[in-house]
Amino acid sequence: MTSSAPARFNPAAVAAVSAWVGLLVLLSHWLGQQAYRWLPVQASSAAPLVDDLFSLETAIACFVFVGVVSVMAYVLLFNRAEKYDMDDAAPVEGNTLLEIIWTVIPLVLVMAIAWTTIGVNREIGAIGPMDHSHGNTNEAMAGAPTAEIQVIARQWSWEFRYPDAAVSSTELHLPAGRRVGLQLESADVIHGFYVPAFRLKQQVIPGRSIAFFITPTREGRYRLRDSEYSGTWFAANQVDVVVQSENAYQDWLTRAATQPLRPGISDASREYAQQQSRLRSSGYPTVRPAPPPMVNVPGSNTLPHAG
Amino acid sequence: MTTLPTAPPGPTPTHGEGHASHPSYTLTGFIIFLCSESVIFLAFFAAYALLKSTATSWLPPGVEGLEWRTPLQFTVVLVSSSGTIAVAEHFLGKKRLWAFRGFLLLTMAMGALFLYGQASEWSGLSFGFTTGTFGSLFYLLTGFHGLHVATGILLMGLMLGRSFYPDNYEKGEQGVIAVSLFWHFVDVIWVLLFLLLYAWQA
Amino acid sequence: MTLTSLDPGILKASHPVPGAPNNWKRFFSFNTDAKVIGIQYIVTSLFFLLVGGLLAMIMRGELITPEADLVDRTVYNALYTMHGTIMLFLFMFPVLNGLNNLLIPCMIGAPDMAFPRLNAAAFWLVPVFGVILMASFLVPGGPAASGWWSYPPVSLQNPLGHLINGEALWITAVALSGVSSIMGAVNFVTTILRMRAPGMTFFRMPIFCWTALSAQTIQLIGLPALTGGAVMLLFDLVAGTSFYRPEGGGDPVLYQHFFWFYSHPAVYVIILPVFGIFSELFPVHARKPLFGYVFVAIASLVIVGLSLVVWVHHMFPSGVPQWMRDLFMVSTMLIAVPTGIKVFAWLGTLWGGKIQLNTPMLFSLGGLFNFVFAGVTGIMLATVPVDIHVNNTYFVVGHFHYVIYGAATMGVYAAIYHWFPKFTGHMYFEGLGKLHFLLTFVGTNLNFFPMHPLGLMGMPRRVSSYDPEFAFWNVIASLGGFLLGVSIIPFLLNLVSSWVWGPKAPANPWKAIGLEWLLPSPPPAENFEDNVPTVISGPYGYGTGKPLVEHQEAYERALQEA
Ligand code: HEA
Ligand code: HEA
Ligand code: CUA
Ligand SMILES: [Cu+2]
Fold first, then answer.
1. How would you classify the pairing of strands A180-186 and A149-154?
2. Interchain CB distance below 8 Å, A79 and C365
3. Domains and CATH numbers, chain B
4. A178 CB near a chain B CB, below 8 Å?
5. 3-state secondary structure of A23
6. Which residues of B fall within a CB distance of 8 Å from A135?
7. Residue A279: CB atoms within 10 Å
8. Assigned superfamily of C31-561
């Protein structure tokens, strides 16, 4: 759009610009398709929607970026001053038509993105709580199915409680193919519930109980990461998410209920204990990690996981 | 021979002596500053409104509401002091320095009375700065405003002192205009604050 | 007055007034000359760029392996917190205020700033809060370690319970920085509004002044809100109030609103003057008028307006209602429009120009390249579902370093090279400058590009350790980071050596148009004194032959005779 030479329109220039735009569109389309490969596997119903949007944006971004850069490349190749030529170039002070064009095109592009996004947002619908919820009462969720799983974030561990099955765990198990309700709570500071393979994320805010819905779609072992900086062991506040078939999930619940309680996974407490025993003093003072939650199933923290 | 551009109007600069000779932009600067300052209050107001409208229980246990009649009386005092400082300004314009000083003193006294009222209200309250969100915000807002009242009184004192310098009030009264603007500002903020804290108790 | 009487007026450089050029001690004193203050700001900020950069080098050293091995986790957290804080409050804002001080009075033909003493006071607050912030490395609990956002409740946790702790010092320093910036902003805005040369209407003002005016307006509106929020945070931390503490009925998300209400617009405080720099430099070094001057000028104001209503895009995953997400997404995306107007105006300026690839131009072109890349990732971040995925991942870190280092810092380098001859009176060494550019451009892309795939894969930011699948891109990023560390060497070498040994600079080495180029290099203490020229045309008349001021030849002749 920028290269259309002001005023004169000779056929050669028009052809060149069209060819250039065509090439850009092809390149952008190709890059948009590549975009899927940069993302983790799609393991929730939201993931394909997010990825399609991202692919579209990658294409538009490529169009804009390469478009601008190719103009820069062109002028660097063909509009350089000769050595020792300190003269001025022909003064072009502006062109109202061009100004209008390059105001309208970005406007249309971003509004198109925004429109698409609002649509995708509606579709994902279940991304988050959608509304502030206060004092442990969540009016927004009145009437919705009560949460199946209670998620408690602590400095620095995750605990998952399945009240109906009387099970607790430090590994999140979810059934594939159905919408699951989670109730997110924090015992201390703000944490973030983030499973990259699900493309979903939600701050876990102390003093609130936030309802959160996920529809896992793909069986496998994924990673749950704390995504809101929560202090010293923030980086280690990760556990695994296991998505399994409904049957396997129910099986797991029944078996888990028979297990005795024992300390769950908490890398922070383990590291803290090591530090204390070795009397390491190379760091600054830290908040002491909460003791590992007592759970039926600690689960494992082993690699690799699918995303 | 070309004639050269003439210097901007105003006295010729004297160099090496600081910059006293440049035209003064104090008032422009001060107005800009006041606009900026008002955003701090806006921020506090927004915090109050937001926390109040989302709270499950707002007032500290045992507190029914704020007594508003006495504060209303002091509000009247403060608001009328906006008038007395305007009168003072008027007399300054008329070069009646003693009348100016008198009304400036009166304004200061009214400001001080307001602060006294504030202090006595504080000492009679059953909740403190750390008793819950309401208490914190109440003291934050009234305290921050009180600080501005005190500053205003101080600035007026400064103007009062300066009025005894010979010639000081010949060149213009930007300082007084600025202080008076500040005082009106403090008053307007108080009115908003009164509405927020005392009138909106539902 | 006659022509001959002009000379004493604009040739002050040859017989300096007290505290004017040739007396280095003035840089260490409470000097009220905007040009001295400008250099004080820039030198101070470059020192802090080194400090902040040093911390970044340690961080990249830690991140070159997945384990938390180089430094303890608590130390890493303190490092990135201090890195972000130092870079923004002690490097970026001061360096831009330094440029403001040097350029605004000269560009509008004012002798100095409107309030010279306030100006000096604003500067001297910088070392004061710099020392306070540095001192926090020495207090028993260590420096603040809750990120540059300082979100409660993490920021309110004070393991040792001391009253003087890193977090309290951090809040104090940031508040003082705010006071200093407001003092500066009042000064810049008043100066631009009231002290322009005769004939310099708003639409004859150089774009840099437009962008400075816009940026400083943002400071005036936004900073007080942050200050208010920070005061409440400080009370929560040291006085036991509960504005943000959920257990006392407070709301931690309220703080997020305060913080971003300022800190989003703050990014435009940074980038707007850099847009100004691009708009000044492209015309000079492409020998063409700025394309669509009026549109570029107005676009700055539009950006100011929009920047105040987009802050929630930093809080999409905090549980804000859906309508807010949609609204703030749309307002954020709209910023692409005025920004695009500027980008295309620069391309229009370059198009058909006679481009000279000297160091300032290289940095401007490199900066524009990086900016557009950062801009399109910004648009991705603005769309809620994509942001939800990459929020708080390295994708965001990549986005903002592209713009803050790749565009803003490179723009600042461009400005330093471009105006170096004007304000020091010496030419810099072109070879070293080009080397600096090459290392910076390659280093920036090597360092910050890999952060995008990392973020898309789901690597969170602010982590001292990470899963091994992220190792590959992190190694590349670290190598790029170290290259950036090296890139600073030719820069510093150039500055110091050319200031001392560089060839003497003519008054107008670039044949540029602008009031500052009608002054000797370096300009005398009071710029034009009483001989302020009357401006008769717009600021970028390259190739038009239109003189900028009345009696242009007289001014030029006087410069030649000097
Ligand atoms: C100078 C700094 C600067 C600048 C200029 C910008 C510019 C932009 N930023 Fe960025 N941003 C930061 C610094 C900056 N940002 C920082 C520091 C953070 C993180 C803070 C932290 O978390 O610590 C951040 C984070 C951040 C987020 C939050 C991400 C998250 O935490 O989840 C978002 C989300 O919307 C965002 C968006 C944008 C957008 C839309 C722009 C736009 O202004 C960009 C507009 C420009 C263009 C679009 C390119 C040019 C335009 C064209 C060529 C026209 C055609 C274009 C199209 C049709 C698309 N930024
Ligand atoms: C102006 C702002 C600015 C600038 C210029 C930079 C510059 C750099 N930043 Fe910065 N960065 C931020 C602002 C900035 N950053 C902010 C706001 C954050 C977020 C913090 C938060 O999350 O709270 C951040 C976070 C951040 C992270 C993420 C940390 C994390 O989330 O865990 C990383 C990681 O790589 C990083 C790296 C770098 C690097 C390599 C540079 C390089 O460009 C630096 C180049 C280095 C130099 C130019 C100097 C080199 C110095 C030497 C060689 C030593 C010599 C010195 C002496 C003798 C004193 N930064
Ligand atoms: Cu003019 Cu000093
Ligand atoms: Cu932002």
1. parallel
2. no
3. 26-50+70-199 (1.20.120.80)
4. no
5. helix
6. 56
7. 6
8. Cytochrome c oxidase-like, subunit I domain (1.20.210.10)
